[in-house]
TrEMBL record:
The lineage of its organism: Bacteria, Pseudomonadati, Bacteroidota, Cytophagia, Cytophagales. This is DUF3808 domain-containing protein. SUPFAM superfamilies: TPR-like.
Length: 464
């Protein structure tokens, strides 16, 4: 069933992150209609999740309950109605978990999962349901073991293979929500299956088709940043659409602050992160922002300002995302960073690999050098050589990092094992790749354990 024209245009405006114009278009549709309720919820949910504004949470969840009640009363018999019920319940689950109501969120997720399974069984050709079911199946199936027991208890085992199959079906065939499905599939494959070029090509093409689309601009910035293309990411940031109608997206400033930090433009980086902290209502990335402010001041030689920022890392925010966890561990660890290693890390993140190697050449360890720094130096060299395509040098240095680390609680060894697994997987040396992926999973504690374990686990599934 196709969305009515006004609802479809409203959804297209929402994909551009223009909730105001989307609401205006919806006003021409009956307020009780299934499509109106669904798109209205998508607008409310998008604004809540992008703003992370806790003051909106109660009203948004109440509106979701009202929409669900209207759908329950509806006499309409259609795939769209059943899909809307499950989709709105999933949005509610995500909102509940994001704002600290994890148990309620888990039960809402269970309802959404089971309802969407039913939609797919009753309407096997209705592709939007495959998009959402596929996403849930994939992420539940890819969760680290430490999280999966609770979802299994709720009857949500998940399946990576089924999830990818459903996502691909929704992404490759025309339907009302095909653009969303294409983006989700591309991001999954880019993050977990080493297909960065495909994702960037898709987003670049979408951005060229709709230069007024803020979502596509955001994705273009993000993917270029992840692929160490700092200049391209900053160009996309500066060319992003702005003005009346667009949602506020403070996180873009935080990304820009990182990019400027990579370039060594410390004053501009500080300005962007200060604006991010002023504009952002949420609790995520705040610790990371103060850590990056610390780095910018410290690398500029402003010791007093750096210490003020360092203390603020502990003053607020949560440690749900790994960047915030890393910042909090830095604050609690009290082990000073090495200036050369830190600069090299930022240069590598920014794609300045030769400059990073030159910086690392100035680093000299002694018996008094902390273990963390002695591990970081070969790991950073390995990353630079890897990204430059000098794979023999990278393999040697990754292996050296693992040998030096033992069970040290830093991420350098598990990340080295993960990267070696990917290198041997690409060379079709499956048995050796499996050894390193299992090695990556074996480390009990480090800053990036969740993402490292997820990637290693998915890679092992591919090799089975």
């Amino acid at each position: 069933m196709l969305l009515p024209s006004s609802a479809a245009r409203a959804y297209a405006e929402l994909l551009k992150l223009r909730p105001g114009p989307a609401r205006q278009l919806l006003r021409t549709e009956p307020g009780h209609a299934t499509a109106t309720l669904l798109v209205q919820d998508c607008i409310d949910f998008t604004e809540l999740m992008l703003s992370q504004d806790a003051s909106r949470y109660g009203a948004t969840v109440a509106a979701q309950d009202a929409h669900l009640a209207q759908l329950e009363k509806s006499s309409e018999k259609s795939a769209l109605r059943e899909y809307a019920r499950a989709e709105i319940r999933l949005h509610q689950a995500a909102a509940q978990v994001t704002f600290g109501h994890e148990v309620q969120g888990a039960w809402s997720l269970r309802q959404a999962y089971q309802q969407m399974q039913t939609v797919v069984k009753r309407h096997p050709t209705y592709l939007p349901a495959r998009k959402t079911l596929g996403l849930m199946q994939f992420f539940i199936g890819s969760l680290p073991e430490g999280y999966r027991w609770f979802l299994k208890l709720l009857g949500l085992p998940g399946s990576v293979e089924a999830g990818l199959s459903n996502l691909r079906a929704a992404a490759r065939q025309p339907n009302d929500f095909q653009p969303e499905a294409r983006i989700l599939l591309a991001l999954v494959e880019e993050t977990y299956y080493k297909k960065p070029e495909e994702a960037l090509q898709l987003v670049t093409r979408l951005h060229q088709q709709q230069p007024d689309n803020l979502l596509y601009s955001y994705l273009l910035i993000s993917l270029n940043k992840k692929q160490h293309r700092t200049a391209a990411a900053l160009a996309a940031y500066r060319a992003r659409p702005t003005g009346a109608g667009y949602v506020s997206l403070p996180y873009l400033r935080h990304m820009a602050a990182d990019l400027l930090l990579y370039q060594g433009d410390y004053a501009a980086s500080r300005r962007e992160n200060e604006l991010f902290l002023q504009e952002f209502k949420g609790q995520h990335y705040r610790k990371d922002a103060f850590f990056k402010l610390y780095l910018a001041a410290w690398l500029s030689g402003e010791a007093v300002a750096a210490e003020q920022y360092r203390r603020q890392i502990a003053s607020g925010g949560r440690t749900v995302v790994e960047e915030d966890t890393y910042a909090q561990r830095f604050f609690e660890g009290k082990l000073p960073l090495n200036r050369l290693l830190t600069r090299a890390r930022l240069q590598i993140d920014g794609g300045y690999y030769h400059e990073a190697l030159a910086t690392l050449d100035a680093f000299h360890s002694t018996t008094a050098t902390p273990l963390r720094d002695r591990l970081e130096e070969p790991y950073r060299r390995a990353r630079a050589w890897h990204l430059l395509g000098r794979l023999d040098s990278a393999r040697l240095l990754y292996a050296r990092t693992i040998a030096l680390a033992g069970n040290a609680p830093y991420y350098f060894a598990p990340q080295s094992a993960l990267q070696l697994g990917f290198l041997y997987q690409a060379e079709r040396q499956s048995n050796t790749a499996k050894v390193y992926f299992r090695k990556a999973l074996s480390y009990p504690k480090h800053e990036y354990k969740n993402s490292t374990d997820t990637k290693a686990k998915l890679a092992l599934k591919e090799l089975e």
